[in-house]
Amino acid sequence: MRWFAMMAATLVMSVVVKAAGDGPMLPPDGFASGWAREGMAKVYEGEALYDHIDGGGEAFLEMGFEACTVQRYRRGPETISLDIYRMRDSAAALGIYLASCGQETPDKDLAERHTVGRNQILLVKGRYYVVATSPEASPGLAKVLTAAGRAVADKIPAAEPPPCLALLPKEGLEPRSVRIVRGPIGLQAIVTLGEGDVLLLERKATAVCGDYKGRGGEVHTLIVAEYPSGQAAREALKNLIQRLDPTLSPVSAGDRSLVFKDGKGRLGKADVEDARLVIQLGLKTAPP
């Protein structure tokens, strides 16, 4: 009986800890003059995220979502909703940020990567993605949002950039074009190669994408997907060949390479290189 009571107590404790989310990272009352918490924080874990995000939760889950801690703040009639998204790793957090940030407008007083506007700030650090939004856009609100972002960022451990970024060569890369993908939702936002999870990323393998400008001004896209093994990369190529989108016409295909053409006559090529699948898109001339 005593053993059962101890187990029950342990179970209750684990549930409480789990439900606590990332509350300790929330800005305290007074993080900016006159601003204080309103109500209790809410925590959404796993697919419960759909209860918080209407229509956008799948992109987070595909990338690698764990939990979201939400807290409202108030100063008189003004309100702010602050969301701390804890992702699986730094690649997942940066991937969500890059898909959302648009043209970044950072504040010089905030070191972490972010973009801030009149009524919203998006920030990424390590495996955390932070969003603070207000329905108002009163004068000076951007500084309040920046203060909220700084208060959270100061509590997040320092982290190195995601290793997947090293998959893209730096020469010629358009920095604003970089995207991180772990499934069909992210990939479809860049290019349609086929139906479903055509690259077999399965929310586990990571692909990084970027645009490159050639000497003549032409732009092509590079996608590099890294898999657990060379066999997994070859299976992904095989699946791509079998499920290639009808708008793309195969030119040649083999065990380690595929060349195809789009409706505008531009060429694409997919090559297996060790445990990676390297895809080039928008080429004017036949790739080597």
Shape: elongated
Q: What is the average of the pLDDT values?
A: 91
**Helix/strand/pairing category:** alpha+beta
First-residue to last-residue Cα separation: 73 Å
Q: Identify low-pLDDT runs.
A: 1-19
Task: Draw up the topology in text.
Elements: H1 2-19, E1 36-45, H2 57-63, E2 65-75, E3 78-87, H3 90-100, E4 113-116, E5 120-125, E6 128-133, H4 141-153, E7 179-181, H5 184-188, E8 206-213, E9 219-226, H6 230-242, E10 249-253, E11 257-261, E12 267-273, E13 276-283
Antiparallel strand pairs: 1-2, 2-3, 3-6, 4-5, 5-6, 7-8, 8-9, 9-13, 10-11, 11-12, 12-13
Brief overview, please?
The protein is α+β, with helices and mostly antiparallel strands and 288 residues long.
Describe this structure in words.
By secondary structure, this protein is an alpha+beta fold. The chain contains six helices and 13 strands. It has a seven-stranded antiparallel sheet with strand order 7-8-9-13-12-11-10. The model is unreliable at 1-19 (pLDDT under 50). The protein has helices spanning 2-19, 57-63, 90-100, 141-153, 184-188, 230-242; strands at 36-45, 65-75, 78-87, 113-116, 120-125, 128-133, 179-181, 206-213, 219-226, 249-253, 257-261, 267-273, 276-283.
Keywords:
six-stranded antiparallel beta sheet; Protein Transport Mog1p, Chain A; 288 residues; seven-stranded antiparallel beta sheet; single chain; 6 helices; alpha+beta; elongated; 2 domains
